[in-house]
Amino acid sequence: MMQIVETRIDPERLRDELLDAAAGAYTSFEGWIRNENEGQRVLRLEYEAYVPLAMSEGEQVIREAMERYPVLHARCVHRTGVLEIGDCAVWVGVSSAHRDAAFLACRYIIDKVKVRLPIWKKEHYADGHSGWVNCEQCAAHAHDD
Amino acid sequence: MMQIVETRIDPERLRDELLDAAAGAYTSFEGWIRNENEGQRVLRLEYEAYVPLAMSEGEQVIREAMERYPVLHARCVHRTGVLEIGDCAVWVGVSSAHRDAAFLACRYIIDKVKVRLPIWKKEHYADGHSGWVNCEQCAAHAHDD
Amino acid sequence: MTKSITVRYFAQFREQAGIGEETVAVAAETAADVFRQLQERHGSREPLGHCKVAINDELVGWDAPVADGDTVLLFPPVAGG
Amino acid sequence: MTKSITVRYFAQFREQAGIGEETVAVAAETAADVFRQLQERHGSREPLGHCKVAINDELVGWDAPVADGDTVLLFPPVAGG
């Protein structure tokens, strides 16, 4: 299940929803706002999403992960709006019988969420400037060139 | 930092201790007691540790993970005593600037903790029997044979 | 043939265009045509492959055909997480 | 040469021996000798490579020498997590 929210993400509550008597493993990922990017000091970030497609594409990514790996439950929540240093921007949680599937599905989901969902972020820097962050995949392609 | 505890593991509190303004990624793993193992219905588990060496070997595993991968903080907590279905037996948390290191270090720590620390578990089954669980590595070797 | 297309801009495209949505008359066969003909609006110098496009709320390839009355969503390089 | 060794048993070894710790006189050069000579106590049919051993609270290999007065910890196959 995919969710886009405008308020604080609560990892503890989300984790509890993945509990299952058949689950032996639980893996979570959180993306936190950090104070630096590519050498510039960051004060805060602004996230924007096109919600209808971010939702449907997120659901699709989770379905793919569940088809690839034998997991019991998988969820992702992405926050939008203004986020401060230390805030959680995205959370992924997976529970499964064995840990291999949980790790792989969790990684699959966050990797795809970052490059496939229509979500953008603008960084506000300490020097007063701001800028939209380039996509990971584009940066990787640029490095390949 | 490694801890062996006899009481409930609190993932939320542990996560908060890994917060860092320079961290952009956080990964956690939890091992939960599940209701089945190798076809037998499990009622509860009993964990036993030799604490002095479980501590020192756990610290060593965490040090190795931090040498291998650029992470900011890494912790592991293992619980001992009688655990019920759904209880968290082991928790691993890692925070880092980027997610690749967090995922790899988290996986490294749980993989090594399971096969190197002097910790044992006895399963109590629905049919009244009980048995000590074989180590993962031994089972893997047996399959290789 | 000129088509009436509703275009929606997001993130840096919206900031550059100074507007989130507009209806334009363009001689376009594909989504890529729409993107290129509105270059001065969204101002993107990104390779097309770095951007995404949706027609009527469905993600499509840049060679997808556009029809009169379609809504085309122009997405700059995404950066979730 | 016979040595006085304090042996500690854990998990299934302790249950089999019916005791957690005992001091024994054994003619042993290495940790492996101690393990083999106490076969009837810990009852293990596990390959030595599946078990672990510590001498005086330090994990060692099975070929580590034992000295008079050492404490040898015999660990059955571990299964944390």
Low-confidence stretches of chain A: none
H/E series of chain A = EHEEEHEEEHEEH
Strand content of chain A: 35-45%
Side by side, the strands of the main sheet of chain C go 2-1-5-3-4
> Roughly how much helix do the residues of chain C carry, as a percent range?
10-25%
Major beta sheet of chain C, specifics?
5 strands, mixed
Architecture overview:
The complex is a heterotetramer, with 2 copies of chain A (145 residues) and 2 copies of chain C (81 residues). Chain A is of the alpha+beta class. In chain A, 36% of the residues lie in helices and 39% in strands. Chain A has helices at 11-17, 51-68, 99-116, 136-144; strands spanning 2-5, 25-32, 36-37, 40-49, 71-79, 81-84, 88-96, 119-125, 130-132. In chain A, the strands form 2 sheets. In chain A, strands 3, 4, 6, 8 and 9 form a 5-stranded antiparallel β-sheet that branches. A 4-stranded mixed β-sheet of chain A has the order 1-5-7-2, sandwiched between helices. The longest helix of chain A has 18 residues, at 51-68. Chain C starts with a strand and ends in a 6-residue tail after the last strand. The model of chain C has no long low-confidence stretch (mean pLDDT 95). A 5-stranded mixed β-sheet of chain C has the order 2-1-5-3-4. Chain C is of the alpha+beta class and 81 residues long. Chains in contact: A-B, A-C, B-D. Chains A and B meet through α1, β2 and α3 of A and α1, β2 and α3 of B. β2 (25-32) of chain A pairs antiparallel with β2 (25-32) of chain B.
